[in-house]
Specification:
Layout (H helix, E strand, L loop, with lengths): L19 H14 L8 H8 L6 H35 L11 H26 L7 H4 L16
Length: 154
Amino acid sequence: MIRLPDNTPDRHRPQRTETATEALERRVLQELSRRTPSPDLTRTIMGRLGYMKAAPQVVRRRRIRRWINRLSLCALALIVVAGGAQVHESGPHARRPRGPTIPAAIGNDVNLHQQRIKGTIRMIRTLAPAAPSRPDDVLDEEVDRSAIGPFRWL
């Protein structure tokens, strides 16, 4: 670069070109230095940000649309869960009960108690003799004749 002495007149000095950034800064500073009011962009900017009051019809329509979207999403999720459960239950990997189920357990319990009661009744019948068909022939003198029923009083 060629260096010119400081006493060289300005017309002989090379002119420096202004960059785009410098030009923009200069224009902004010129605009800000003016005393004229700028246009009010508050409503436009705040409206884009969602802070401006909307018409009641628009608010109602948007609220209904939001609730419809929420309910449809919930219904869709419920259908998907129910369908997945149905597919899982019908598939080969579904867990089946290994032991007796509740109805089978109740049935087994009832049958067991019936067998125990029948066994107790049989045991009582074997221990007690049958009622004599003719009490005078079978009973001894030592037996109390006032006994009623199939039992003997000894």
